[in-house]
Design a protein that fits this description.
37% of the residues are buried. Strands 5-4-1-2-3-8 form a six-stranded mixed beta sheet, with helices on both faces. By secondary structure, the protein is an alpha/beta fold. Helices cover 43% and strands 17% of the residues. It has a single domain, classed as Ribonuclease H-like superfamily/Ribonuclease H (Nucleotidyltransferase, domain 5, 2-Layer Sandwich), CATH 3.30.420.10. It contains nine helices and eight strands. Helix 5 packs across helix 6. The structure holds zinc ion (ZN). Zinc ion binds next to helix 9.
């Protein structure tokens, strides 16, 4: 089985933010332990007495919010976010990142959460079809309990209503996502950082974090399938997602 851990970055309601991002990492089930262990080692380095107190949440680290993060200066905190992302540098090539950045103003009458979730689940389905023959592996989407439980659960309900469409389209994915507590899952914490990296890239043109993961997005035959930039305002966008589709 392949697990796609997703988390969100950017607020749907906040008009000062142009983007909403859903993003994360796809991990074959036998690699989740390795990935969690790598992040645990970093947590031990930050707080040797009690690594379980360290929850990697990129926007909190960046803002220096909370007892653990306020002891580091800004540059150190930026470096911690980068180091969380850089655990992927030594990962097997079967661990790939996915993200969808939705420019909210481009789609005024649609829910960006729904748009991003539909986009990512269809990409995940295609990925499973490509890496495994004849749907031999199932996929499960794992989401942070605290983030968009309600709207995403509404979404999976809608898919059930339109059963056939969802069933035949997303053949490889188990239909109801799994919601987990981010405190208990290091991999969900990594998904949070990936969403944050993509959000900073599109919302603030800050490449500091995106550069750490750019090479990890699912790509085949010169196309960056793992990253989508949903927008209608900039035909000539030169981001890697738009360029690879032209
Ligand atoms: Zn673009």
């Amino acid at each position: 089985m392949y697990l796609l851990y997703l988390d969100d970055s950017g607020s749907v309601a906040n008009v000062n933010e142009k983007y909403f991002v859903l993003g994360g990492v796809c991990v074959p089930e036998n690699s989740t332990r390795w990935l969690s262990y790598e992040l645990e080692k970093l947590a031990q380095e930050i707080n040797p007495e009690n690594p379980r107190d360290v929850e990697f949440h990129a926007s909190e680290i960046f803002g220096g919010r909370g007892k653990i993060w306020e002891q580091f200066n800004r540059q150190q905190r930026i470096e911690i976010i980068r180091r969380v992302l850089l655990v992927l540098e030594n990962a097997y090539s079967s661990i790939v990142t996915f993200a969808c950045a939705v420019h909210k103003e481009s789609f005024p009458n649609t829910d960006p959460v729904m748009t991003a979730f539909e986009d990512l689940s269809s990409r995940f389905n295609l990925y499973l079809r490509n890496v495994t023959s004849e749907y031999s592996h199932k996929g499960l989407i794992v989401l942070d309990k605290s983030s968009y439980e309600t709207s995403l659960q509404n979404l999976s309900f809608q898919f059930k209503e339109q059963g056939d469409q969802w069933g035949s389209f997303q053949k490889s994915i188990i239909e109801v996502p799994l919601f987990v507590n981010s405190r208990a899952s290091r991999v969900i914490q990594l998904a949070d950082h990936i969403a944050y990296a993509v959000f900073r890239r599109y919302n603030a043109e800050d490449l500091t974090y995106f550069n750490c993961i750019e090479g990890r997005f699912d790509q085949r035959e010169g196309k960056m399938h793992g990253l989508a930039h949903k927008q209608t305002y900039k035909y000539s966008c030169t981001c890697p997602a738009c360029i690879s589709r032209r």
